[in-house]
Amino acid sequence: MAQSLELLLIQFLMPDNDARRQAEDQIKRLAKDPQVVPALVQHLRTAKTPNVRQLAAVLLRKRITGHWAKLSPQMKQEVKQSLIESITVENSPPVRRASANVVSVVAKYAVPAGEWPDLLTFLFQCSQSAQEDHREVALILFSSLTETIGNTFRPYFADLQALLLKCMQDESSSRVRIAALKAVGSFLEFTSDGDDVVKFRDFIPSILNVARKCIASGEEDVAILAFEIFDELIESPAPLLGDSVKSIVQFSLEVSCNQTLENSTRHQAIQIVSWLAKYKYTSLKKHKLVIPILQVMCPLLAESSDQEDDDDDLATDRAAAEVIDTLAMNLPKHVFPTVFEFSSMYSQSTDLKFREASVTALGVISEGCYDLIKEKLDIILNIVLGALRDPERMVRGAASFALGQFAEYLQPEILSHYQSFLPCVLNAIEDTSEEVKEKSYYALAAFCENMGEEIVAYLDPLMGKLMAALQNSPRNLQETCMSAIGSVAAAAEQAFNPYAGRVLESMKFFMVLTNDEDLRARARSTELVGIVAMSVGRKGMEAILPPFIDAAISGFGLEYSELREYTHGFFSNVAEILDDTFAQYLPRVMPLVFASCNLDDGSAVNIDESDDESVNDFGGVSSDDEAHDEPRIRNISVRTGVLDEKAAATQALGLFALHTKSSFAPYLEESLKIMDKHSGYFHEDSETDLGVRDNAAGATARMIVVHPQLVPLNQVLPVLLKGLPLKEDQEESMAVYSCIYSLVLASNPQIVSHVPDLVKIFGQVVESPVEKAEVKAIVGRTFSHLISVYGDQLHPLISGLPPSQANALAAFASTG
Description:
By secondary structure, the chain is an all-alpha fold.
């Protein structure tokens, strides 16, 4: 076999595609025989050209897994000896590395079985060799073996750490330093023991030193590896950074603002600062690093692209904005003065990029620094509205973005500025730039959504411009335009009636679109009809509803989750205006709602079955035993669109029950099963899941209120209480606590066993900064009634609360 295999290896490397394919087929056939192992080992050691020796190593790595158990002890020893010789004697670095990869695979099986007891001894000796090549390949092997036999290293961990630290400080060889850095990354990823992880703190100065030298020599990919190690250190709960945080930030900022480097390198550096802002912000505050970070990040906002449709995930300005946003959320008092100074200084700059950055920065910090911005709102709004009139499109786009952020996060104070805000935004929606238009629609929608009767004076110019835009804009702008019209309708209520007919007539066109690229617009139009229906009311809508109902139901056949989500919202609104007469639609609508509630929303996992670069170079040569290689999980994505759909469908069930009353009874049992399932949603870090859980609690509460005799309270109450206090939806909070109040007021016996839980929940609610006053008021009334019924029995429960919560509850009790 050896002779024929050598010819095939040579043929495989020929440029002729036909010859290559023929060789590949023959190699696949021969590779099924265990004797291919000694043949490949022979060529690894004796082939005249490095390319053939490397190919032999790559194929050996692919085949050794399936054949190792079939080899005799003598053959196994010969394979191990040949691999060691290849690592130590081979002159070609690619062949040496390929042989090291084979060692890593063999060790996975041989070391745990006790078949290679001297491997670690050899590696330690090799790593201290006078020859640079030996030290490098030993470190490469330490790195790769961590993935396969990491547990074997545990007794030697202290020695390994000392070795790696020494090699990272090897001034005679950059290759050794880099290989040591990679090994540190592998060991850090493998290590979970807190005491072992803490020891990596001593590596930080050396990691920084290696990274600086790599940046200077143009080896940016290695510097990125250093940033990945810092990422691991930052996310670790162990106290790893200490005073080194100053050096890490300094180096990261140097790289961040170095425009000669690749975007990916700079992005990685900025990302490290972002992680520090997220996970170690108290350390940034302690070491007075917030202002130095902002002094670099704010100017980086000026590195924006000139292209309207630029969507570069590595864009420096976007990464810098993320850092500023994260800092503002966690350290608002330390962020606002510097950003305000930057924006004030550059709002009149002759450089359009810095004028753009000055207003972008204000928009970015508006959520985190909302209280501080409100104190200077007149000045800040003047800066942004001035930028909205800037001759440069990019500056106007940044201003419209900032106004959208203000409209969302500076409520209700921003509403008092409607006389200056609305006219400027009305002009902006007629801008020549689609970007400015789209962001202005968003700002208008967010602003108008919270307006009251003040909007009436602006209805004519608002609706005139919005309807004109709806007729003459591309699809993406029509979508945002519909969102703005919906906000206007919701704010204007009955005053919107004169405009409703024209809007509804326009929506008939959008609600029957079926092309994939039009389905988002169809979803928005369905949502808008529901909002307009709420403004017009039952009297104006009932007679004209059937075609809209038919169009909405037909949309479920288009397999577009967002359309189904918005359609559930549409039906919820229709149920609210029709009340009990919505029962006529239940037979058609309920199967659709149940289907959405029961959708599979599991994580989507992509498996990357590719191997290292060497294998990919010869990727066509595989084997029947490739399944023995363990695939790598490349990424996991959560299907948030389905979760949004579930949240909307869950809320719809509660509203259908509330409004159709006894007509809902046939669907109650199935609905309660769904609520039980949804009350304990599993993706804890997903805000969408909070929507599912909150809506399940609200829907359960509505079902209890409407059907107290049909609902098994002993089963349903634990479901209702499981997710309290709610995290997201104030409307659902009100439904839940109103239900609990009615149960307590009626002295329902099922509530008694849950009183301790209620006291804990009420303590959190009355202290919460996000719960609205009306929610706290009904909780207070409920607690007062509990006091009147149970009296002194509650005192031990109250005393077990944090003092601030206990005092707040006591205040409610005293006011009755």
